[in-house]
């Protein structure tokens, strides 16, 4: 007896659009790479990367790490450099000691921040190159008669 062979080539791949969370009683030492939005409310020591996603540092969080994400919202305590491709939002109860690199930033009144800020403009969308077009400026003065500037109307 033979059984039918099942092909997985054309089946849809499930896409997770949810978010992950580390609770306030969780401690992580090492590297975290997330492919979805991430909320940290515990302790983290190391590095956290959420390229193309939002990283939220909750009010109970104590983070000693370098952070990289598309958008970062800080409510807790961070000691380390922070880099966001889009925006960093530091809430009034937050404490951040480290350097910031982002294109947009909000620091609420009452937040503690010690470090430097590097505002980098978002890369503009590439424009298609326009082919050189013949303009009337290229044909002006194309006659065979030589002209001298300032000599118009004088003989």
For this entry, give a set of tags.
155 residues; mainly beta; 12-stranded parallel beta sheet; globular; disordered C terminus
Explained architecture:
The chain has a domain at 19-114. The longest helix is centred in the C-terminal third of the chain and has 4 residues, at 136-139. The protein is mainly beta and 155 residues long. Residues 135-155 have low confidence and may be disordered. It is built from one helix and twelve strands.
> Approximately how much helix is present in the residues?
under 10%
Roughly what fraction of the amino acids lie in strands? over 45%
Major sheet size, sense and barrel closure: 12 strands, parallel
Query: What radius of gyration results from the CA coordinates?
Result: 28 Å
Query: What coarse outline follows from CA principal-axis ratios?
Result: globular
Mean pLDDT over all positions: 80
N-to-C order of helices and strands: EEEEEEEEEEEEH
Distance between the termini: 108 Å
Structural class based on helices, strands and sheet pairing: mainly beta
Poorly predicted residue ranges: 135-155
Topology, number of strands: 12
H/I helix tally: 1
């Amino acid at each position: 007896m033979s059984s039918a062979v099942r092909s997985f080539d054309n089946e849809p791949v499930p896409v997770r659009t949810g978010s992950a969370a580390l609770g306030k009683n969780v401690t992580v030492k090492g590297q975290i790479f997330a492919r979805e939005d991430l909320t940290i409310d515990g302790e983290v020591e190391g590095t956290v990367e959420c390229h193309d996603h939002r990283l939220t540092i909750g009010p109970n969080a104590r983070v000693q790490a370098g952070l990289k994400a598309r958008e970062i919202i800080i409510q807790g305590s961070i000691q380390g450099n922070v880099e966001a491709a889009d925006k960093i939002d530091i809430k009034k109860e937050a404490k951040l000691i480290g350097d910031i690199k982002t294109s947009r930033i909000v620091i609420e009144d009452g937040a503690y921040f010690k470090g430097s800020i590097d505002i980098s403009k978002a890369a503009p969308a590439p424009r298609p190159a326009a082919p050189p077009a013949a303009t009337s400026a290229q044909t002006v003065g194309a006659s065979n008669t030589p002209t001298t500037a300032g000599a118009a109307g004088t003989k």
